Amino acid sequence: MRPELVARLGENVPRYTSYPTAPHFNASVDAAVCRDWLQALEEGAEISLYLHIPYCDKLCWFCACHTKQTRHYEPVTAYLRSLHDEIATVASLVTGKGRVRAVHFGGGSPTMLKPEDMVALGTVLRNSFAFVPGAKISVEIEPNDMDDARLDALAEIGMTRASLGVQDFDPKVQKAINREQSFLQTKAVVDGVRSRGVESVNLDLLYGLPHQTRESVSSTVSQALTLEPDRIALFGYAHVPWFKKHQTMIDEAWLPDSAERFAQSQLAACLMLNAGYQAVGLDHFARPGDALALAARAGTLHRNFQGYTEDRCETLIGLGPSSISQFRQGYSQNMPSTGEYGRMVADGGLAAVRGIAFSDDDRVRGWVIERLMCDFAFSAIDLVERFGDAGQRLLVKASSTALHDPARLLELDGDRFVVPTESRPFVRSIAAKFDKYFETGKARHSVAV
Length: 449
Known about the structure:
By secondary structure, this protein is an alpha/beta fold. The protein is built from 14 helices and 19 strands.
């Protein structure tokens, strides 16, 4: 690797699952604004839903999600009542307008729910919203939760995609992150969802974890490939103990340095490419016939708070504490505190407490950043045709970036600005060049690679 690229391995930049990024949300977007945006939804619009389950029965020390550990089910039962309240309110505001094309259950651990509660939640959604035929239902699965009853419940709600967290199969690594999960246990869940007709299986893998080595990464990827997943997400562990206090349980002396993290990521990627998977964006891999791979080849890949997606819905409605919604007008985020969230959604209320309304400048920069993250390129002609004078102004910024960056992370090829192949692992750093909030913001971020 060129020395100027090595120097960028330790840069800290956003993950760009949105633009503007969440640290720049503010209180100007509240429940009243969110209500207006929901009511402004156009008739016939297709929407996606995200449901957040903010509980786990065991806390993984590597996790940076909004969740809490509980050994008792009573808080979950109380939370589900609030979630049903919010669903009823949102549905009343979009009835006759939005039709649901995709639903994603995330957390936390959605599969912590009792089977009857999962089925009831699925029933409430279908009774409250109009679903398009063939709507996709994806669920994040914690294999330690699973039994036949839960697998049957997921089948009953119509799950089409199962996403399993693997991280690493090495017992030493698993112990260091408080996530013990055998290969056979994982295989049993994969076999279980497939026997019940699930269309797609995704596995989440991590590099940069405590005690991880290239050898352990290679072993984990090789084992994962024997399960023949349709997709694999390969994320770099984000060590952010100032944001998630439980990550202080991980001794930083156990973590690989930046060069080793990069080597682990490249090794894992090579193994998946050699196995016939197609690279999708920065950190996803998919079988060539998978919808995500098809979208990447067609230039229709998108990126939202769940990562890379083929979902083209302009509106994503987040339900549950801390959930983020995306509208044509901007982003809104719900109250993170589960108790306060419950109080806010009671009696027909909404829980939005922060967000950001898009300016014209936000829209053009967001488009460029998304295309860089998805396609590693964008067209100057498209930029100007879509955004007029605002696009022309940003084109000057892009030209300066391409011409004056000694690392040559972005190059001009005809009318297209292109990230060279060797620079693609650094695309988050490139995207940051177009982020007007980044240099003036005070938020701390994870390393770029």
